[in-house]
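Tip: read the tokens left to right.
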């Protein structure tokens, strides 16, 4: 990066976020508005760090709205405690989702076992007679 900063295309390339996503993050207040050089946005290292954080947070299940609320409630650099609390709450949500999915998987295994054992054949025959 030159001392002049990064243009949007370079920041996009470095972070894996599209230029459109970068403009969205800015409009949502997730990253501060960059300085301008004419009509070009010029990003600093802090922008790159923030975008990497946003992308990582999204990768682990945070929605932009959740991040926006976190940044709105705690400013452009939320306190460590607020971030840790958000991560812990997300982990609790994921744990509940894992439990729900495990239960659903057990039900599917039961269905599969019933199908393989032929126990549903009488029911299928009755449904065919009614049709």
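Filled-in amino acids:
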């Amino acid at each position: 990066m030159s001392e002049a900063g990064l243009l949007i295309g370079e920041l996009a390339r470095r972070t894996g976020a599209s230029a459109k996503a970068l403009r969205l993050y800015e409009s949502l207040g997730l990253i501060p508005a960059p300085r301008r050089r004419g009509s070009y946005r010029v990003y600093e290292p802090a922008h790159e760090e923030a975008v990497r954080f946003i992308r990582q947070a999204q990768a682990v299940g945070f929605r932009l709205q959740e991040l926006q609320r976190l940044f709105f409630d705690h400013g452009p650099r939320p306190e460590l405690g607020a971030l840790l609390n958000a991560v812990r709450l997300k982990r609790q949500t994921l744990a509940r989702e894992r439990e729900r999915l495990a239960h659903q998987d057990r039900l599917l295994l039961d269905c599969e076992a019933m199908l393989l054992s032929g126990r549903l054949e009488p029911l299928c025959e009755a449904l065919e007679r009614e049709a």
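The chain has a mean pLDDT of 87. The CA atoms of residues 37 and 61 lie 35 Å apart.
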